[in-house]
């Protein structure tokens, strides 16, 4: 009886040994060796199979983390088609219509792309649930109530699908998988994006099912999406796939949400590993690993362990751009100004002052061009009692932003432990001339 199974990769023993010898990153980081690759911010490395050219357009689809990706890429000057939309009256009525693009499972993504590219498959009014007189819900788009006539909603829905159809001509598609806990409408034979309205569940309790996707379900959905895209694209597909690090808010399974979330993320991560094998122009990018392997103190914002820190998102997107756009510069360990600022903020928050000052030294030109970085560098140097270094950083920050009082005021205060009253008097006179309205600060400097 054969026990070979169905491995996703097979090599002879000598090929595996040769590859291992050539892989400088094969050993897990330890504090004594390459520890900085893991803490405070994990830095997993990938080898791109394609390049994102400077003028390439990008479309991001998937869970709410995809919206973070879009904003970061747009801030970096990239054209993001999934943020270029006009959803008319209904879109304008919502606080953030971009949330309509959040798709939490592979089937939700597949639904929208298929309807956008093969419009005849869209079920129309059947997929718009009435929850009261003149009130509707589209369980593909989220929980927002649509208090509009059904004709207006359907017109809006087609505008939405027109925007979604940009997946056919965007140069780069970024897909972020979210969850495997899904809902299924048995009447329509349709996976939903969110929980169906409670009114309908009560009225038709047999119509809807809660389903937890398997590895096979996720992989089949990915392959169906890939085939659909290839059928409708006229240019080569460049696709980055990843798993959202944002965990489940709550679970419908009879288990601890921590366990349910571990399954949800790991089964999608495993499916993506097989999905990318042998597919030209399709890469996995480890944004999930970036976040979940990092120090929680810097990985999460809002103190809730669910929303990824903006600084970490910036670093992830910087890594994408350096590796996929920057070419050889990525290997040199270069950082963008935004990524340096984000990393400095993270190290400062953790109190890693020596590391932060060393980082600024390695990227001196970038640090010296950013007043915020210099102020943080000065604060760390002050904590380490390196007063002259702190004063020098403050002086450079003040020169970069002469209209801001904070650097000059910190220089004045630093003169006291440096025992430099004459310099303090000179700076105080400059302060009075430049910031006459801040006499309250000057009145407190009594030690001169």
From TrEMBL:
The GSCFA domain sits at 58-318
Q: What is this protein called?
A: GSCFA family
Pfam families reported for this sequence:
GSCFA
